[in-house]
## 1
Amino acid sequence: MLAERMNHLGTETAFEVLARANALEAEGREIINLGIGQPDFQTPEHIVEAAIKALKDGHHGYTPASGIPPLRQAIADDLNSRHDVTIEPNRILAVPGGKVTMFLAMMIYGEPGCEILYPNPGFPIYESTIRFSGAKPIPIPLREQNGFAFSAEEVLSKINERTRLIILNSPANPTGGVVPRGEFNALIEGLYKWPDVAIMSDEIYGQMLYDNREHVSLIGYPEITDRLILLDGWSKTYAMTGWRLGYSVWPEKVAPHAEKLCVNIHSCVNSSAQFAGIAALKGDQSPVKAMVSAFDERRAVIVNELNKIPGFSCIQPGGAFYAFPNITKTGFRSDELQKKILEDAGVAVISGTSFGEHGEGYLRFSYANSTENILKAVDLIKGCL
Ligand code: PLP
């Protein structure tokens, strides 16, 4: 018999679409994958070299559960210089990927009887882990007419004495939406009335912004230092999804609890990956800029092309590497269209409903693929519709 809580754990449909796409490829079909959320770039060479060197230098053993001290210091230095703050390394935890911070936060804050607010459409693991913790998930609807940013007024209206945690994500998956500073200011101001409500800010796409948009990090609001969990990592910024390396910043009193969970789950992050993480933060940032500028060019192409498909309309995403077109005028439901486009056109995309019920009427296209493939994919979709 399995524990009852296993009935509440969800999953990430992107991996299911990937499996189906691979199966079609194995049958000899050519598939263009605009489904998976990872950069189509290699990890920069100097980062790979740092990991190889660490292995050759004999770094083969366990490290402290919270990460090696030079890595925590490098993270603190990076945050302090980018956001003009003073974060001490004792609040920082190195973890095996961005996702792990979500799980830790839900285990620390979630339990039956409490409520956790989360963006919808949003990264599916938020809702899944909230449910797994026994807490009640309360969606924060993100709407196209607001550029898929939350409304501070609406978020505040959903808070009550049962609310334990609010999850925020800007720039966002799956919409590419970016929340303007004014909305964050209004939310933080409103939260004065709710001093016991914690905030988890997922800023994993924080360095992928376009049209000179600024990244508003919640780490820059000193008034919420004692209740902020910052989620970030290397997966997207440095094209390191397979390295499994992320980090979080915790309120000082909560950090030891998060660390204790790490000791119980994974002991520590792979040690050579930690050395790679230092090289990424301290080394040349030009590969990051080059990758973001390539995404920016493709963003222009994909949005323009999607808007030419009958029944599609797509707003400009401000960050990340996703376009989230409205497909209601095609007459198809999102999941039907996802299936049709994969089976008939050979293009893998993700139904908006994989990111929550407010994703109905949309599809997620990842533009972490070549311009040539994007153009070909749109042609194939037009043909099949
Ligand atoms: N947060 C968001 C919003 C994401 O889109 C993703 C990955 O797609 C993650 C976190 C997880 O990142 P990682 O691969 O480092 O676990």
Note: The mean pLDDT is 97.
## 2
Amino acid sequence: MIRCGKGLTDMRNRCILVTGGAGFIGSNFVRFLFETEPAIEVVNLDALTYAGNLASLGDCLNRPRHHFVRGSITNAELVRLLLQQYTVDGIVNFAAESHVDRSITGPQVFIETNVKGTLTLLAEARTAGVARFLQVSTDEVYGSLGQTGAFTETTPLSPNSPYSASKAAADHLVHAYHHTHGMDTIITRCSNNYGPYQFPEKLLPLMIMNARRDRPLPVYGDGLHVRDWLYVRDHCAAIWAAYQRGKPGEVYNIGGSNEMTNLDIVRLLLARLGKPESLITYVQDRPGHDRRYAIDADKARRELGWEPAVTFEQGIAATVEWYQGNPAWLEEVTSGAYQAYYEKMYGNRDRAG
Ligand code: NAD
Ligand code: TYD
């Protein structure tokens, strides 16, 4: 058995199972943990799907306190073994299928990973007596807003896409394990993230990549859909604050109070990259496209003492700079299957359709 800080009362010395730690937010979270908590031990379980990439972990991969394991959260035997082998204190579950457009064309894997995988983790965590289970969820479980208002933690769940439906199902299971079995659980629901290492299927990296290559920027519908953007490192800090200071069974909304239309974001990126707006191409809308998300993060500020540290201007500058400075990462993740994905999603998507 590998002793991994078990029995220590100081949270900073504990062993955390991070799932999905080779993805966008997970890899940023692992990096954040090693930067802020030098004594922490991380077991990183990731299936390395198209969205997971070891290159996103950089130097973290070689840290003696980082144990990377390739495998699925749906594999109960593997999860059980890891919880025993490393005497894990807590779980932070990032692992998921995360892209709305993919959930529309292929929902099955979203149920497998996001619903069944979360259930597997909960069941094994309960058996192993894991002290805390944090589920990384999304504001999309609340559905879509009109022109005013913001989601609070008491907004009823009303998911509209197969992706958000699978995340809402997982949230319900987490709540059920707290309510039924008294498990110590936390759910965080964050708005849209942006920053380094985001796979270029999501809005910002896709637009930055296309603009750099002088390719059309495919804006869905009228481009006036609104998202509430948060820099990824601020999300990581909020998750860690919730893990350390959140109350068992509670939900915390995380967001930066930074609402933007998609069109405004795309124009901002083009200006930063010195590319013409003529690259903007309006394409057929996403079916069931949620019009507006906005997060009320007052509870996280009050109860967790968390505040976003990065302004949107700083975050966008850092993000554009990162993608410009890391063409090799972008080349690697867009080789192979990505080309077929792009063709399938955008190849025949002009407005006439
Ligand atoms: P991502 O798609 O970049 O990464 C997902 C990671 O999970 C990948 O490394 C992938 O290999 C791994 N994975 C997928 N299936 C797995 C399985 N069965 N077992 C183990 N690993 C598996 O996603 P992301 O954007 O980093 O999102 C992480 C989490 O945060 C997700 O749960 C998502 O719902 C949530 N979230 C994302 C955002 C956002 O803006 N990206 C906002 C709020 C919440
Ligand atoms: P996305 O990054 O997929 O996140 P989510 O759908 O989870 O909010 O999309 C953000 C917004 O950008 C959403 O309103 C859809 C829109 N969008 C486009 O207009 N074009 C694109 O090519 C993509 C990927 C997204």
Note: Confidence is low (pLDDT under 50) at residues 5-9.
